[in-house]
Automatic annotation (TrEMBL):
MF (Gene Ontology): palmitoleyl hydrolase activity
Domain of life per record: Eukaryota
Family annotation (InterPro entries): PAE/NOTUM
Protein name according to UniProt: Uncharacterized protein
Keyword Phosphoprotein: no
Key word Hydrolase present: no
Swiss-Prot/TrEMBL GO biological process terms: negative regulation of canonical Wnt signaling pathway
Taxonomic classification: Eukaryota, Metazoa, Chordata, Craniata, Vertebrata
Annotated signal sequence range: 1-21
Family designation: Belongs to the pectinacetylesterase family. Notum subfamily.
Organism: Eleutherodactylus coqui
UniProt keyword terms in alphabetical order: Signal
Length: 389
């Protein structure tokens, strides 16, 4: 039925010359363009004979409007197209297990805006930790099981109702398969069982996208949630510098960090560091950056002594060093932050000391955002938001 409506509308509109589909004024039995429109068209105008609908023009135009609105189901079929998987041509840039990294792409022909999204999903900081992660969350360490297409939501949606500002941009989703907060630069070798190449994956994806239309882009928005949100802070300037070095100085690079603004605070209860959940935030990142051979932006690195580059993984420490504009979205009571702080809310009544700790956490996080130029920080208990429907 929708297809029939589309054909009907196309046939109906085809009787109207392209140069005359603007606004008309009535003259007897005809509707003709005004003089200004004739001048702008720069050519001959052809009066249209609407004798058949004389005296009922308002009703006729209402029908045209209704038919145009009915056209939406036809276009929605195209808008619903899923993002397609592209494995990197450079097979030396890999996931943890050595399988090729890649990205999902939904092109929007004619758009000069690109949204590149970094997926989140925690990380691993030791051989034993990574082995367990590989057994239980393999898609976050390997591309072997990735589907050929992916349907996106939230800021990656192609539906105007769901995503009014970015629905018609070129959409890129980079799956997280490096377990290194998008910071690693270490290939898999005979001595190491895993590769950690998160930072290199981003650079290689950007390089490939230049051949798919990014070279003519006006804006590139690097966005990400959770570990991907931290990845934005670590890589947004690197992407800008990469494009500048390749000669694409006209592309404006922006960042959107969702739920990646973590604090290096004291845990509610101190525990032995056996995995990423029990480790204090600072200890986990210190171990991780050594294990991944992680890299951080040079401007941030220069702010700290050698061996203390781990500080750059915390938003309030790296943000002042960034050149690219970044919008920060961060729940004041972030569930992931509370997890690493050993505050486990399991449905039981919250004790007074827990409540005081949680409230203080919110105040601390809010204070770290006071110098951020653009932020959205609801006083809610949650984690991630920009890819939700």
């Amino acid at each position: 039925m929708a297809g029939g409506i589309c054909v009907t509308l196309v046939l109906l509109l085809s009787v109207i010359p392209a140069g005359s589909r603007k606004s008309w004024r009535r003259r007897g039995q005809q509707l003709v363009p005004n003089s200004r429109e004739r001048t702008e068209a720069g050519g001959e105008s052809f009066p249209l004979d609407f004798t058949a609908v004389e005296g009922n023009m308002d009703n006729f135009m209402t029908q045209i409007k209704n038919l145009a609105q009915s056209l939406y189901p036809c276009s929605a079929q195209r808008l619903d197209e899923e993002m397609k998987l592209h494995l990197l041509s450079n097979h030396s840039i890999t996931c943890n297990d050595g399988s090729p990294a890649g990205y999902y792409l939904k092109e929007s022909k004619g758009s000069r805006r690109w949204l590149v999204f970094l997926e989140g999903g925690w990380y691993c900081i030791s051989r034993e930790n990574c082995d367990l992660r590989y057994d239980t969350m393999r898609r976050l360490m390997s591309s072997k099981g990735w589907p050929a297409t992916k349907k996106a939501s939230g800021i990656l949606s192609t539906q105007p109702e769901e995503n009014p500002h970015w629905w018609n941009a070129n959409m890129v989703f980079i799956p997280y398969c490096s377990s290194d907060v998008w910071s690693g630069a270490s290939p898999k070798t005979e001595k190491s069982d895993y590769a950690f190449m998160g930072s290199l994956i981003i650079q290689e994806v950007v390089r490939e996208l230049l051949g798919k239309g990014l070279d003519t882009a006006k804006v590139l928005l690097l966005a990400g949630s959770s570990a991907g949100g931290t990845g934005v802070l670590l890589n947004v300037d690197m992407v800008a510098e990469q494009l500048e070095e390749l000669g694409y100085t006209g592309i404006q690079v922006r960042g959107l960090s969702d739920s990646g603004w973590f604090l290096d605070n004291q845990q509610y209860r101190r525990t032995d560091c056996t995995d990423i959940i029990t480790c204090a935030p600072t200890e986990a990142i210190q171990r991780g950056i050594r294990y991944w051979n992680g890299v951080v932006p040079e401007r941030c690195k220069q702010q700290f002594k050698e061996g203390e580059e781990w500080n750059c993984f915390f938003g309030y420490k790296i943000y002042p060093t960034l050149r690219s504009p970044v919008f920060v979205v961060q729940w004041l009571f972030d569930e992931a932050q509370l997890t690493v702080d050993n505050v486990h809310l399991s449905g039981q009544p919250v004790q007074e000391n827990q409540w005081n700790y949680i409230q203080n956490l919110g105040r601390e996080l809010r204070n770290t955002l006071k110098d951020v130029g653009a932020s959205f920080a609801p006083a809610c208990l949650s984690h991630e938001v920009i890819t939700r429907k």
